[in-house]
Design brief:
This protein is an alpha+beta fold. The protein has helices spanning 12-80, 83-113, 126-136, 138-143, 163-179, 226-232, 238-248, 273-283; strands at residues 122-125, 147-152, 158-161, 186-194, 197-204, 252-258, 262-270. A 5-stranded mixed β-sheet has the order 2-4-5-7-6. The protein has a two-stranded antiparallel sheet with strand order 1-3. The radius of gyration is 28 Å and the shape is elongated. It starts with 11 loop residues before the first helix and ends with a helix.
Length: 284
């Protein structure tokens, strides 16, 4: 037996102190183990995330090459196809283009989550951006017999921002509007300057969004209704990408919709860097 100095016996207070120290030592050892386990799990998650990103990057690259060939050859075949063959060639081209859009959406969201959350600030002339985006959808709108138009309340409207990311956000909104607007409907892109902000809105008279779903539609991979997914396609990334692009500019996206009557998606972007801090106070 081990006693205290002078062979004095341990009393109850000594025993209590030793038990407390033993518990604290055991707790410290257990905490160290938990920290080690957590760090190991974190490293594993990071490795899995890296593998996922590598897979997406490789798959996107490898898929784009054959898709480009399919789209190119379908365009070439369309010129020489007989009237009976044209319908089949159109189906090939249309579905290849749809697959290309899906791959680009996945690439966009992966870029946002793997370090490309930077914006290259410059003076952006919005009429040119809007015109370019709208023109890229004119054929699709014409095929669906949807009227696609632009209304600008002020000429030469501009903001400080990243033109590419603003274009991606707007492109997703226009694409979404065309997807959920029936033949004979209308989609309009409007722009106007507000105090400290620019507002770009995409309006449609399509199927609309149920009120209880309107705050969920910006979640990644979220679909409003399964039967709409089957009918219209898509994987639920476009609106989440748009939200991220807008928020990278310290802006905000607002949805207003009535089921069965249509929707309005509005992007509010600060005019310049001086307005960013004001925007953050407004939106927080």
């Amino acid at each position: 037996a081990i006693n205290k100095l002078g062979n004095a016996n341990f009393n109850n207070e000594d025993i209590y102190i030793l038990e407390t120290l033993a518990v604290q030592s055991a707790t410290a050892v257990q905490n160290r183990r938990l920290v080690d386990d957590t760090e190991a799990a974190f490293r594993k998650v990071m490795e899995l995330d890296r593998m996922k990103s590598d897979f997406i990057a490789i798959a996107s690259h490898e898929l784009r090459t054959p898709l480009g060939l399919i789209l190119g050859h379908s365009t070439f075949l369309m010129e020489s196809a007989t009237p009976d063959q044209k319908e089949d060639v159109e189906i090939i081209g249309r579905n290849a283009a749809r697959l290309k859009d899906l791959i680009e959406e996945i690439g966009d969201i992966d870029n946002l989550t793997t370090g490309m959350r930077r914006i290259r600030i410059q003076q952006v002339q919005l009429p040119q951006v809007i015109q370019s985006v709208v023109e890229s959808f004119m054929d699709e709108a014409g095929n669906k017999k949807i009227t696609l138009s632009i209304t600008a309340k002020q000429p030469n409207l501009s903001v400080e921002g990243d033109p590419e990311k603003i274009a991606i956000a707007l492109r997703n909104l226009v694409k979404n509007a065309l997807t959920f607007t029936n033949s004979g409907g209308a989609v309009k892109v409007t722009s106007e300057q507000l105090p400290g902000f620019v507002k770009i809105a995409v309006l449609d008279n399509g199927i609309g969004i149920p009120a209880e779903e309107q705050q969920k539609i910006f979640q990644r991979f979220y679909q409003v209704e399964k039967h709409l997914t089957r009918k219209h396609g898509g994987i639920g990334l476009g609106l989440s990408i748009t939200k991220e692009m807008v928020e990278m500019h310290s802006g905000k996206i607002i949805v207003e919709s009535v089921e069965g009557k249509g929707s309005r998606f509005s992007m509010l972007l600060p005019l310049n860097a001086a307005q960013v801090s004001a925007a953050e106070k407004v939106f927080l």
